[in-house]
Every structure is written in structure tokens, then in C-alpha cells.
Amino acid sequence: MRSAILLSLIIAAGCILATGCVTETKKSNVSGNVSLSPTDTFTPFVNTSKDLNPHDMGLKGMLTISIGGWKGEFPVSVDTMSVGVVSTDRPKTLMIEEGNHTVEICCGMRCEEENVYIRFGKQRTVDFSEQLKRDLEFIEPTARITGYRPNSDQISIDVEFINPTSQALTLSADVSCGYSYIESRSYNRINNIAQGHLSATVDACDRITQTLKFNLASGYNYVYDDIPTITNISSE
Prior knowledge:
This protein is mainly beta. The chain contains three helices and 14 strands. The chain has helices at residues 2-19, 54-57, 129-136, and strands spanning 60-66, 73-78, 81-87, 92-97, 99-107, 110-118, 123-127, 142-151, 154-163, 169-182, 189-202, 206-215, 220-224, 229-235. The strands form four sheets. Strands 3-2-5-6 form a four-stranded antiparallel beta sheet, with no helix packed on it. Strands 10, 11, 13 and 14 form a four-stranded antiparallel beta sheet that branches. A three-stranded mixed beta sheet has the order 4-1-7. The longest helix is centred in the first third of the chain and has 18 residues, at 2-19. The protein is rod-shaped. It starts with a helix and ends with a strand.
């Protein structure tokens, strides 16, 4: 009896396997984690100048610095940074980043400054000759009478020495003043000239005033020429 039951069970199991009564749940053929977010895409950067910051891209413009016919050689700086020298009839040309800049040339203790705006692809020129002329007045070393003060039998004459060059110079000049007086003994009016020599060492692009005093011939009722004169100006 037991044998018959066991045989029936074996036959039933075989039938089930043969007819596919037991099915296996299908598995997905995709292994691993699947991202449900949209696919990332790359957008190329378009290089158009209107979207750029000139300072970031290093866009530059041309700057020419000159002093015209002014004598000498002057150090140049841009935004307090030294960029070389500019000299007579030899401008300094630079390529500078676009934007606002301060250009400066110096001569001794005197400096001239100019603010400029540089544009990409554009040329800009800064000429300092007018500023130098305004402040120094003369293009060559010179001397001039700036005042005189007669006082009885004396006269004081102020002489200004001007050095517009980029080197210290010793300037000298001859000074004279015509006058007349009445001699105490003869009571005659006598014409005379007071003459002297004056010199001074003047720093680059600077000026200094020296005073020369004359003791006149003895007499009274002195009459002076309109102004003293200065001659034979020299520098070394």
C-alpha cells in the first residue's frame, strides 16, 4: 500500500515538471542601479567679446607716451609700476590692458600725471610736453631777474636759476645794473654800471633764487635804470 502511494507521488511530481505547471518569475535583464534623472548634456562655451570681461581675457590697447621736444630722459610709470623711460623725440610705446590707468613721468622731485582710458585695439597718446612747459616754463636751462631793491648806495638783485632738464646742473650768469649819481666833491652827475657774477647748483627740474648785492659808488641822489640785466648764462 505504501509503495503504491509513493509511486503515485513521484508520477505526479514528474507530470508537473514536464508540463511547466510551476513557472519562475522573470527577472529584469538590467543589472545594477538605474538612474531615473535625465541624461546630462554639455553646452560648448561661445567666445564672443560682448560676453567677456576685458580684464579676465587680457585684452589690450596701445599707449604711446611722449615729451615732445622737451630735453632729457624721464622715468615713466603706469599705475605706480615702472615701465622704463621716455626721452627727447623718442616716445615710449606700451601694450596695456583695457581700462582706466594712471600714467606718470618724473623729473627729480617733480612728477606729472595723466589719467587715461585704454580701449582694446585702439591707440592712445599722452604728451607731457604741455604740462612740463606749464610748470617749468623754459625748455633750456636759464636764469632771469625776478626782482630788485635799490636802497641808497646799495641795490639787491634777485636772480632765479631754472633747470628744466633731468640732471642736476650748475648754472651761472653775469648781472649788471646801470645807475647814475651825483658825486659829493664835484657835484656832477656820473653814469656808472654795477656788475657781478652769480651761480647756483640746481636739481633736476627745479629752480632756485639767489640774491646779489651791489655797493654803489659814493655819492647821493641815485637814479637807476629801469631794470637790471642778465647776460652770459651758462650751465655745466
